[in-house]
């Protein structure tokens, strides 16, 4: 179907671009899935621009993955006349579409995208419209600082080399230009340092930016005085250089991952609208407008947005978003269903018991909002170092000034200012931001994405690691299958696997893969009862697979764990039980971590696997079962009250509270395009085995910063040697400043890269 | 001697132009997406038969 559409419109080039363009459309989309886009109110909140003829809108298309996608999406106007143009931002996986709303509706555009395999992901968070744009201010500031720094350097050279007396008038021109060029740096580029130090002073805390802001201002005043009074050239080059290098470091450190989001809340999981049944009519309703006692119609593959009671149909709910458990849970009419799961069976009806914002999960999510943003977050050790540094520098400046006041009072002012200029802790800040920047890059190369540089230090400081079980320690795509009951012959196994291969249900697929189908039998009269089981004549024999009730005809005791029962020719044989499959790398990981850290596992599951897990994790580890999301959060809090620094590793929404509460929350994901709960870091699941090496690298960070700090002190001592004597010439300052900065940048880059090599990262 | 001043002003104004171009390009979002533009240019307007 997609091919026809593409071929008719002469876009076959699409298939020449890549070997395997497109991905299989696994799920066919319900016909009126996008009906809610016809609602004016919803439409208005989604679009970015509208006039008499045109609408502009950005769609998030998670399926976009190659240059063929780019080609197809940018030729959207050939597929539908109403589309005027479309432009793709690949990094953000977004397509901005302009279309004529007289010819085609928003819903039709969304359906067109879906038809060619790129279903737009429209979530509740899109309604708020406030998409934070990337802050580019610091890039501008960096550009301005670089421009001024280079030009001032250029014009300072004649001064260093010495001007002939005949060219004294030129000297005046150079100095004036330097003065003018330094103004943008002082007034614009250095703003982040003023802001940060002002903030820290208001909180009665001296951070590292305070002495830097002071040094910048001091250098400017001193230099301006020299130039205006005609007594010297000033230190404009040093001042602009400091600002430039430090901004480079900051920009490196603050490099953000546009495709990832660390701030997600429940709204990015939930759809924009659901169908509400009113007088037997299906009305698409925006999620915030859902009221108590509304009846929701949930179609297959739709997310359940509010807590409620099942009133009609058979619910077969995939809570993998929430718990990490990939096998669906069955619910009968009358049972209570929590929001957050995805219906995988047929259509169901749900009576809303709690509004969206009040549901169990959302409440849990919002619970500690206030706390996470509080000042509790630890301050970097760099600030503490900077504080001592500042006190020492002030003391030295004072002593020097007093000394010269009694010996040669004309030099006192000179000494105070030069000491403050020279002793600026910029080397410390530089080493910190460059090491952080490099380590962030190395970790990102290993698919471990940190939210910010502070997370490196937090990771280095932890002493307790808490794991979620399902989906974190276990592999959600893999189950261990054990058969119990009357033994099956080879041929019977083949009958079962042939039947299982007919169904797309996750359990059937797992079973078919486990039994390795090789000979081809014919299946006649295949039928599937959603949420119950499947049956059909395979090679002439009636085979049935399904729940206990489906096979044995009556509902007895609910099962321990997940089981699929088998019957051949109406005779029950036995069952396959599905068990969690622990990641292969787990024993090695536990072995590496156990020596240095306390380990805990908290799981929402029943304790059927306690013994197995305890063996895996070691006797000293804590293993807790049947923990609700709130219990998980409380467990982390209890550890923290014991002054432990906790790292939480989890993957589902039920870990969200604990991830937020912990000192470092790491969200594990099989695929970074998936949605992850809010966290400090996102780790691709396959890389979990490297965790202990990641932690070691973060620890190396601190040592590298300390080493370069010592180096910077050496430079400072040299500078102070001149400054305290009152003989610091602009030339010495101009040599000392860039050489110290450059050598520190090299040292930090080199040693952090070496550390990573050594750890095989 | 005054020629140096003229040269100096000329060089600074050229540099200012580059600074302005840099700021403009950042503002226009030219560094936002480094995947699509280099590939977009390779697509032919009419597919070869």
Produce the secondary structure layout:
The complex is a heterodimer of chains A (761) and B (49).
Chain A: H1 2-8, H2 13-17, H3 40-46, E1 49-50, E2 54-60, H4 67-74, H5 76-79, E3 83-89, E4 94-100, H6 106-115, H7 124-127, H8 137-161, H9 168-189, H10 191-202, H11 209-229, H12 236-253, E5 273-278, E6 281-286, E7 295-298, E8 308-312, E9 315-318, H13 320-323, E10 329-331, E11 336-337, E12 342-343, E13 348-352, H14 360-367, H15 369-372, H16 381-407, H17 412-422, H18 426-445, E14 448-450, H19 454-461, E15 464-468, H20 469-473, E16 474-485, H21 490-500, H22 506-515, E17 523-529, E18 533-538, E19 541-546, H23 548-552, E20 562-568, E21 571-582, H24 586-594, E22 598-602, H25 610-617, E23 622-624, H26 629-641, E24 646-650, H27 656-661, E25 664-669, E26 681-684, H28 691-725, H29 730-758
Parallel strand pairs in A: 15-22, 15-24, 22-23, 24-25, 25-26
Antiparallel strand pairs in A: 1-2, 2-4, 3-4, 5-6, 5-7, 7-13, 8-11, 8-13, 9-10, 9-12, 14-26, 16-21, 17-18, 18-19, 19-20, 20-21
Chain B: H1 2-27, H2 36-40
